[in-house]
Amino acid sequence: MEEAAAHKRYVEVLLVEDNPADARLAKEVFRDVNSSVRLHFASDGLIAMAFLKREGIYADAPRPDLILLDLNMPKMDGRAVLARIKEDDDLKIIPTVVLSSSEADADVLISYRLRANCYLRKPAQWDEFDHIIRCINAFWLSKIRLPRQLEVPA
Amino acid sequence: MRRIGEDGMPIEVLLVEDSTGDVRLTQEAFLEENPTVHINVAVDGVEAVAFLQRQGKHADAPRPDLILLDLNLPKMDGREVLALIKEDDSLKLIPTVILTTSDAEADIVKSYQLQANCYLTKPVQLEDFEVLVKSINDFWLKQVKLPQQLQF
Fold it and tell me: Which of B13, B103, B11, B101 minimizes the C-alpha distance to B51?
């Protein structure tokens, strides 16, 4: 008889977002809709890169299965983070969804030029924001096949 | 600059799919979900490229707003088409969704390496297929901000 899996495979999501209220709401919605999600936070671009490159205190950070990325952030903005992710052979396959309050065509265009997987406008209203997190969950974490990174046996 | 889906302009989708049954299913499902979608069909990789590059009989082809791309295609396989799209400055901005029967990890990883925007496995059951098309429509054609292309 096979042993039940001792290790539950979580879906690791990195949310790069400088607004703590938005981060908190995302955390609540994910907790509500998908118990397999482990949400990690980076409040600016530098922290995001340290997490992704597993530097310093992030040496044991998991590889995210999905990145949600705000554009306008202090220290290193989302465009720079996106460029770095998609230029890195190791990181570029991680689906990266831009989630930004900007509606400017220029921001949408530059995000796709920098190889964002898609661009979503972050709504100002909380109920709409809740809805968009649910849509992200329903599509990216349910329908879509995510690239599974090679698992190193424990 | 044309705005997608406004002023009665259709949303142009390029479906690259060699199975006539799946083509019909997809067309019908989109028609039900979103009549503003216009499905353009290419039945193999070579035709897909000709359409995208506006060659020959495709000289007046519209620029797609979204590409749905099967991997296993005759003449030129979907992986090659994907690589070509994502290396071409004038095509790489078009969101390209892999929609294929394969659920092999190698195909999934390779597609993301080639910068596919996302990867979907085609369900076997009809109702599930319709649900998937609905979710593609809901997400990519309603929620997502697509890049506005400059029209020449």
Answer: B13
Cα B69 to Cα B46: distance, rounded to the nearest angstrom: 13
Beta carbons of B99 and B118 less than 8 angstroms apart: no
Predicted TM-score (pTM) of this structure: 0.92
Cα Dmax for chain B? 42
Q: Is A151's Cβ below 8 Å from some Cβ in B? A: no
C-alpha B133: how far from chain center: 12
- The encoded tokens of residue B142 equal 């309603």
Give the residue ranges of DSSP H helices in chain A: 20-33, 45-52, 78-87, 105-113, 126-138
Segment holding A39, helix H or strand E:
strand A37-42
Nearest CA-CA distance, residue B88 and chain A, Å: 11
For B113, counting Cβ atoms within 10 Å of its Cβ (0-12 exposed, 13-18 middle, 19+ buried), the class is: middle
- The percent of residues in chain A predicted with pLDDT above 90, rounded, is 85
Average pLDDT, chain A: 91
Alpha-carbon distance of A26 to A132, in angstroms, equals 10
* Beta strands B11-16 and B37-42, pairing class: parallel
Contact B78, B45 (CB under 8 A): yes
pLDDT tens per residue across span B59-118: 999 999 999 999 999 999 999 999 999 999 999 999 999 999 999 999 999 999 999 999
Pick A120's closest partner by Cβ from B95, B118, B144. Answer: B144
Query: CA A76 to CA A134: how far, in whole Å?
Result: 27
Provide the sign of the torsion angle of the four alpha carbons B87, B16, B125, B141, taken in this order.
Answer: positive
Strand partners, B96: B67
Nearest to A119 among B120, B138, B144 (CB): B144
pLDDT, one tens digit per residue, over B18-61 is: 999 999 999 999 999 999 999 999 999 999 999 999 999 999 99
Identify the closest residue of chain B to A94 by CA–CA distance.
B112
